[in-house]
Amino acid sequence: MLIDATIHKANALVIDANANSRSLITAQLREVGLGFVRAVTRVKDARIVLENAPYDLVICDYHFDGHEESGQDLLDELRRENLLPYSTVFMMITGEATYAKVAEAAEAALDGYLIKPYTLNSLAERIQAARHRKRVLGPIFEAIEAQDFERAAGLCLERFEARAEFWLFAARIGAELLLRLRRHADAKRLYEAIIQAKTVPWAKLGVARSELEAGNLSQARRTLENLIGEMPDHADSHDVLGRVHMEQGDVIAARNTYRTAVELTPGCLLRAQRAGTLSFYCGDREEALRLLERATVNGLKSKLYDAFTLVLIALMRFDKRDGKALKSTQVQLLQMLERFPNSARLQRFATAIGGLLALQDKQTAGALEAARELAAESGRHEADHEVASLVIAIWKRLADQALQIDEMADLMHRIGLRYCINKASTEILVAMAENNEGIAQTLRDCHAKIFEVAETAMKQSLRGQAAAGVQLLMQQGERTRNAKLIDMAMSVLKRHAERVDNAAELESSIAALQERYVKPLGASVARARSAGGMALRGT
Hints:
Elements: E1 11-15, H1 19-31, E2 36-40, H2 43-52, E3 57-61, H3 71-80, E4 89-94, H4 99-108, E5 112-115, H5 120-136, H6 138-145, H7 149-162, H8 167-180, H9 184-197, H10 201-213, H11 217-230, H12 235-247, H13 251-264, H14 269-281, H15 285-299, H16 308-319, H17 323-339, H18 344-360, H19 364-378, H20 385-400, H21 408-419, H22 423-433, H23 437-462, H24 466-480, H25 483-495, H26 503-531
Parallel strand pairs: 1-2, 1-3, 3-4, 4-5
Helix pairs in contact: 6-7, 7-8, 8-9, 8-10, 9-10, 10-11, 10-12, 11-12, 12-13, 13-14, 14-15, 15-16, 16-17, 16-18, 17-18, 18-19, 18-20, 19-20, 20-21, 20-22, 21-23, 22-23, 23-24, 23-25, 24-25, 25-26
């Protein structure tokens, strides 16, 4: 029984914990003509396999006895982090008890599902239908693979407007592409048109995401709260609401929101890391350690695992004086560094954990050397908020040992002026200082100073002195390297360019500062969002 003329060229992955079921599905796939079939027993193994090689077809069980992860958790993570090609057919197998959840998922991102027991014919029919949809939408997928996102979005919009075959699926892809292209208003209009044509939860969530990306935080929060009121079990909505809370600087609310998301999807690696990281920032170290160590057990070798998790675990193990566990964390980090020896980020993490071990062993000179190395890193133009967090965490622990280090006060002041970009970034740095009130107060004073400069510049521009406001922001931005001031200088200049004599020259100078000091922060935001960390807006 061949599904189509090219099925023999396709490869498949079967994910099922039950040996009998796994063997049956494998045999059935070979009977319908699949050329290569691989099988794994656990979600964590499947995640790594799919991260490292593309498959034409994935058949996954929904429920895994004895494990928190579900097939839905796996699909959600892979889709959300763009680790599953659009051309891959992902089908779920479920029992009657979970039918409603899987049917809902199918409408959004799943290519098909089968309810146990099923026949060979029904399996073949579902695969055939899914492959047909992939062929019809092939030009869109080809444009995406070629990274021609404008063309791909245009093809999606054409299919949506014509209500051609698979228009709803094409519309969802198109809206995602518009967000990626930073066409937030166009994405929102498309999501709203989808809702008008056929109300679906993911479209309402898309509206909220568009509002968030456009900086309309209050509006995004209202949209999300309404959606969660309608569908309290919609975990993706909690994810986006958590991001809104973070952008608004409400770390506690963000932690509570991500905690709910983890409760809804306990097997989700990214959500466990986010909730654990936020619990660390909120001072709930027991919950933080539990969530982050669980994430490490389930996903250490996954691309979705963020190595910063190991740093937070190391800090908590050091504070608990658990030398054996701290050493084990160092070994895990060094093994990761062996796989990626050129990663400057992992090298910084190794320096930080090495400093903690030296401090634990009363090797003050070694600990101070590591602390000064990290401090030097924080002064480099490509440094980011994460480096500043490491510096504060290590120097705070040096201070706890009653070590009097002359340069510490100046170092914390420089870090505060550069990295206290907004309320959220400031509060996270304060959280890294923990109970050291001296460091915390320095950081808050620096945030107040940055806010004062920004306010003064805005007042000048409103009084018709835009040139003076731009000069102030540019000068203070260059002196402090603060991304908020640099970006604000460009924003004010563009708004009042006609009233600034040397606008072109100033724009060139500010653009150079953005390239040097703002761009690295943007890269760290993208990395954090894709790797499970807590991302912060640069401005």
